[in-house]
Design goal:
Layout lengths: L3 E3 L17 E5 L2 H18 L4 E4 L6 H14 L7 E4 L1 E4 L9 H10 L6 E3 L8 H17 L5 E4 L21 E4 L2 H11 L8 E4 L2 H5 L4 E5 L5 H9 L17 E6 L8
Parallel strand pairs: 2-11, 3-4, 3-7, 4-6, 7-10, 10-11
Antiparallel strand pairs: 1-2, 5-9, 8-9
Helix pairs in contact: 1-2
This protein binds 2-amino-2-deoxy-6-O-phosphono-alpha-D-glucopyranose.
2-amino-2-deoxy-6-O-phosphono-alpha-D-glucopyranose binds next to loops.
Amino acid sequence: MSIIVRFPPKKVTPVSNTCLAEVGVFAAPDYAALCNHVADLIAALIQSKPDAVLGLATGATPLGVYAALARRHREEGLDFSRVTSFNLDEYYPMSPRSLRSYRQFMAMNLFDYVNCQHWSVPDGRPTSIAQIAMTCRDYEQAIHDAGGLDLQLLGVGRTGHMGFNEPGSSLHSRTRLVTLAPVTRQDAALGFGGIENVPTQAITMGVGTIMEARQIVMMASGSAKSEIVHRVLTDEISDQLPASFMRLHENAVLCVDEAAGRMIL
Ligand code: GLP
């Protein structure tokens, strides 16, 4: 199985004074190879730093990574006992017991299968504005107290969001309550049995929170992501495309499969 690394990608001409050359693009032939590669990065981090602090993402894209990590725990003894993890976001309002919550998503797809004791997802339980602000501050403080994020895993939404930082989210934004873009709610409609059931808000780590991670690994899979992948690499870096901010990070890699990378490879 061949995996190609292009650095920088050959078809991409940056439009402005970008830091494109800083972004590695890792192209895998298919989804399985993509997920294995990302799982390798995370496993290598945990092996070199057993008390690593992970930032994890939800969505369909990282599912294969979580399956690969669970398998490595089961078959190879990859040890999560000293790992701490913080998830990017949670719908608001959302009960942590709801099967539609990102908390349950992470339990069902990863944490029920590995020996990690310290994992957090923002608390989406309905409460007062003051309480939400405190929840967000506490989340930032907990990341800080854990030593900061060693590796932040990201997907990318069709709006160019990362986490739930929709267009308009500033580079310095922190964990906060946000309003979801209509496209984002549409993309979530199936899982909620109709767009009318999709919450209009969410709590998300900010772009600034994400950018403080020591390493960023953004993933994209499938042809539906090829256009946004192209834009993330070629559009002007701006708050209109929050995922483009990853190009300003000094240790970021965009990992794609061939379908998602077809406009850039
Ligand atoms: C949601 C999540 C994002 C994720 C995005 C893409 O909006 N909050 O973190 O990156 O979906 O999801 P998918 O991987 O299913 O395309």
